[in-house]
Amino acid sequence: MENNLLLSLVADLTSALQNSNHHDVEIEIGEQPTIKIFKAHSIILAARCPYFSAALSKFWVKRESKIITMTKPNIKPEIFEEIIKYIYTAKISIQYLEVECVIDILMAADELLLDELAVYLQTYMVTHRSEDLNQKFNLVNQVAFSVGSLDILQKYCTDFACKNSELLFESIEFYSWKEAALISLLKRDDLRMEESYIWDKVVSWAIENAGLLKNFKDWSPEDIQKLQITLCNVIPLIRFNLMSSSEFFFNVNPISLALPQNLFQELLEFYLVPGSEKLFTSPPRQRKFNSKFDSKIINEIQTCWIEWWISGSNETSKMPKKENKFNKKFELLLRGSQDGFNTSDFHRLCDNQGPTVIVIKIKGTNEIIGGYASADWKSNNQFGFAKDSFLFAFRINDDQKIILSRLKLDSRLALGFDRTNCPWFGSPGDLKMAGNFQLDCACYCRRGAYELEIRSTTACFSVDEYEVFKVLS
Q: What is the DSSP string of 44-72?
């Protein structure tokens, strides 16, 4: 019964709007040649719209006889048609409207202080029409950061830009970004780019927006001042401590005049004076990736390190920019806690599966170690050559302490195919698992066939958990 009454009310209000019965307001919308006059009722406008509540005061409006006249030339008639319907009925349908039209309605809603409508429009588009937003990203991004109150759309744009940062940074539209959009992106810890590259693109953006020549050698003192002003709100978000000294020298130093003098002096001290690392403590930009490992041991960042090493990288201090190709897939073959911690379990599930990754959590420490076997595991009591195999070590909750140990060039002892002690990397046992890996303290790491030690001790250990993944591609 209650719903029927509400429907009846909406129908009556719709009729009042369409028939203009007893109207006392005429609003001229648009510009020539598309001006349209809307007839409305002041009591409804004032009750439903804060903008009209204020505008209908005696100080704002013009009265002609008993009719109040108003003008809004900056809103299109077809847009105001949707707005006025919403004011009267609390209903709006945007399912099939073009993105540009929805954006116009959103901007009109913001101007008319219809906050509830603005939130609804943003939420609907983000939830139900995200693909359409993506297709019109540059328009949506410009509008979102031109209007300070569009928080939902701003977050959506920043999330999208963070996931597609390199593609967007290389587009010509990047140079028309609002400063607020750039600042929102630079604040992100998960921005997947080298800091030197970020700096280069930010400087290019600033040069374009300051209207300067690209060759900094041709800049006048006034040009430098323009650049300083354009960069002043952005520079604090650049994480200079994530750049190498060579990147600082070649990327930052040439335009040092654009930096505040005290900042440049601190950067010189940071890069030249040992022990000055505490001057800049910005956190690393943590990379948020879709994990390719169904692992209970390693995190997403460690997953990506392993994939890069499989692809041939030897990097352990800075994630290589050119190798960010997330094309590997991994299948869990064995997890000790569900499949067993004995060599027989390993051979049963992992032999003749092609290349594999083994990940081990050592009991009683924060160490994670493991290895990549680039050839099949077997049970023939022989050693096998697998030239691309390597060992690695991480620390729990510390993505900075990393060891990569590749096979020595002259070694033919990459993998041991022992029936009773396996997995086994190198001889005498760069990483050798023996006994019951969880109950017996019989596993060890003793460098031989691989370049580096992955543990600081040769003492035997047992494991909390271990996993084996098949590399599918």
A: HHHHH-HHHHHHTSTTT-EEETTEEEEEE
